[in-house]
């Protein structure tokens, strides 16, 4: 399949490609066995391509002729005539943007990762990039653990086209109580290391006892100083906050993105909306972590905390939706057992009250806007980066992530 698409792309870039009729999926792109989980979708660099009579996901009943050159959509026009040979249709959607993943982590417990050799860790990191991309994620914001240099090495050494915004090392409890000068220096070190985001652990998480999870890890003054320093270094800020005073302070300080928000109140959601701060709930991970025989197979206390979080989370997401908060798609996936299951987040967002259209928007347009790429990524529009997913069925009609993933034919990656 890849050879066919790359041949079409090469011809298109030289001005010789003939347009593919998207009603003939065999001519467009060779079908894959959707039951083969190890090869869910082909990945193709969208140097150039042409599609006729293709459906754009979310626009029912209308076909389009689409051209791609130099990794960008160059023209998108409604088809002037019906297809010559109705057959197997194709749908195109923007590539998914996962705003909260951990591509450098190989194990849930960091002590287990420390037992691995550097070569084994790198191999697992490369696999994480590949599995994420094959699931339809074309851009990811790594929310802690992945350095910009490691992301660059994987991209260059392995030809891995997944676009990654790294946040490097996170600021957490070990940095608290050392003064604002220390925090400002740490922010500059992380920014100078190539991180495009600064990550703050403002509360506990699954590792914290329920009665301690909302206790702030930083004082109000410290959290404000981190946000100020990050913005002074032209970096955006994402804040891990399950709720409570730390979430209040993140809003007041002007953070750019709040993560998880398990116990976020309606009042806090309203203030998030007023401040223009985005919310990335990472909803699926808590349900997965609560499963006794699931992919993570966590100990009882962790599962119990995850179950509590999963029970409380839908209310926070409904608050955010009602108040008009910009919601972003993020998975918080951090182990080989989870990378590649990213689309399950759509199911849980819908289960928590988003419409299917809203869930898809969180994974595409909103993701691009949150990253600051809203003028060039996350949409099927002329001039935008040709990051896209091709499906052999309407993705908006998929019953669940498994069916959606099984309908992926190819993942296209363009140039940002």
TrEMBL record:
Q: Where is the Amidohydrolase-related domain?
A: 92-397
InterPro entries, from UniProt? Answer: Amidohydro-rel, Metal-dep_hydrolase_composite, Metal_Hydrolase, Metallo-dep_Hydrolase
State where composition is biased (Basic and acidic residues): 1-10
GO molecular-function annotation terms? hydrolase activity, acting on carbon-nitrogen (but not peptide) bonds
- Tell me one Pfam family matched here: Amidohydro_1
What protein does this entry describe?
Answer: Amidohydrolase family protein
Keyword set for this entry?
A: Hydrolase
Compositional bias (Low complexity) = 11-20
Q: Does the keyword Transferase apply?
A: no
Name the segments for region: Disordered: 1-20
């Amino acid at each position: 399949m890849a050879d066919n698409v790359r041949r079409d792309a090469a011809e298109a870039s030289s001005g010789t490609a003939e347009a593919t009729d998207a009603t003939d999926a065999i001519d467009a792109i060779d079908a894959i066995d959707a039951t083969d989980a190890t090869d869910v979708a082909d990945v193709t660099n969208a140097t150039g391509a042409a599609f006729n009579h293709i459906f754009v996901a979310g626009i029912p009943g209308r076909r389009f002729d689409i051209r791609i050159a130099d990794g960008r959509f160059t023209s998108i026009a409604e088809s002037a005539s019906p297809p010559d040979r109705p057959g197997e249709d194709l749908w195109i959607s923007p590539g998914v943007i996962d705003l909260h993943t951990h591509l450098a982590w190989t194990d849930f417990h960091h002590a287990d990762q420390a037992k691995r050799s550097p070569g084994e860790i790198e191999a697992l990191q490369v696999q994480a990039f590949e599995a994420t991309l094959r699931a339809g994620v074309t851009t990811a914001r790594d929310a802690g653990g992945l350095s910009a240099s490691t992301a660059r090495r994987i991209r260059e050494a392995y030809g891995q086209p997944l676009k990654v915004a790294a946040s490097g090392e996170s600021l957490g409890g070990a940095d608290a109580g050392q003064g604002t000068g220390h925090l400002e220096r740490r922010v500059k070190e992380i920014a100078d290391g190539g991180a495009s985001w600064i990550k703050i652990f403002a509360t506990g998480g699954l590792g914290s006892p329920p009665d301690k999870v909302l206790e702030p890890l930083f004082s109000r003054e410290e959290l404000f100083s981190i946000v100020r320093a990050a913005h002074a270094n032209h970096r955006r800020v994402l804040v891990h906050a399950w709720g409570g005073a730390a979430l209040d302070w993140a809003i007041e300080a002007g953070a750019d993105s709040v993560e998880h928000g398990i116990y976020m109140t309606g009042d806090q959601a309203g203030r998030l909306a007023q401040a223009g701060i985005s919310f990335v709930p990472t909803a699926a991970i808590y349900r997965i972590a609560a499963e006794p025989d699931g992919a993570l197979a966590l100990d009882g206390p962790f599962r119990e905390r995850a179950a509590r979080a999963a029970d409380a989370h839908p209310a926070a997401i409904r608050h955010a939706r009602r108040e008009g908060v910009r919601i972003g798609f993020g998975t918080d996936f951090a182990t080989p057992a989870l990378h590649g299951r990213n689309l399950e987040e759509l199911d849980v967002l819908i289960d928590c009250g988003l419409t299917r259209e809203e869930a898809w928007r969180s994974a595409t347009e909103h993701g691009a806007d949150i990253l600051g790429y809203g003028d060039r990524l996350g949409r099927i529009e002329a001039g935008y980066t040709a990051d896209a997913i091709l499906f052999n069925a309407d993705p908006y009609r998929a019953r669940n992530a498994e069916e959606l993933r099984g309908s992926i034919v190819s993942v296209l990656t363009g140039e940002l």
